[in-house]
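Task 17 of the worksheet. Students: predict the tertiary structure of the chain below and write it out as structure tokens. Keep your answer in the requested format; marks are given for formatting as well as content.
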Amino acid sequence: MLWAGNTTACDICGCSGGLSAGGLFPQVQNNLLGLRNSWQHFDHPRGNFNGKSEVLKDHIFETDLFLRWFPRKRLQVWVNAPFRVVNRIETERITSLTGIGDIQARAFYTVIQPDSNYHKFRHFLLAGGGVSLPTGKYRQRDENLALLPLGLQIGTGAWSLIGNAVYLVQTQRVGVQIQGDYRMNFENEDTFKKGNNLGAQTGIFLRSKLFRNVLFLPQLSYRAEKSMSDMEFGLIRPVSGIETQSLQLSAECFGKGWMASVLVRKPIWQNSPDEIPFSGMMFQVAAGITW
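Model answer:
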């Protein structure tokens, strides 16, 4: 019988592999160049073993170099280049991986955009998508030469197509932002296909000024994600697929020639096979220049 007794941790993903469209700022129409740093941990249930060593936690740190560029008024291009540090903590060892992850390139068109910043009621609609490149390593092993799960690897080894849509409604002080995102993953060279991802998010934000030239945008959001089952050799992997819900609190500041943001995401619900680790809180800070 599959998965009876102790589970082999090398087959368990350390990360839900979800997709967030965070970083799309319809409220501010500027070119951006910056760094985004995030930290997240995953707690393993009892019984996940790597040989005789029990797996306890996975820690994922990511530094993301991002660029937003407006080649035209309604068209924006995003490029994200992540550098990942992954640590798996077990009772007998700690395994660490580092390297450049999968680079993403996306383009968005502003379908609806008001002509003036002085409207009391404004709304935006952005739609677009892009591609995730297989630039990160995905066949790395631990000290016992056991292949680590794909969710713990720096990259995926496969191409992905990404689609996003963002709708925003705001008055002079209060706004609501709704977004949806979808990632279609393709098969890598090991005939492994990571499950496609579907996400939706809604949030309310305030628009105010801390100082005369500093725009302050705090936001409270709810996010739901679903990762479909993984496929290997054309068959569904028995321990795969996950649904999550989370609350997110963020704040963004835009000054003359700079921007900064902070974000905290807390998972509130997870539906997955018992062997899959539970995601902990995620913290993120970002800073950059604008022009």
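Marker's comment: The chain is about 0% helix and 60% strand. Residues 1-6, 16-22 have pLDDT under 50 and may be disordered.
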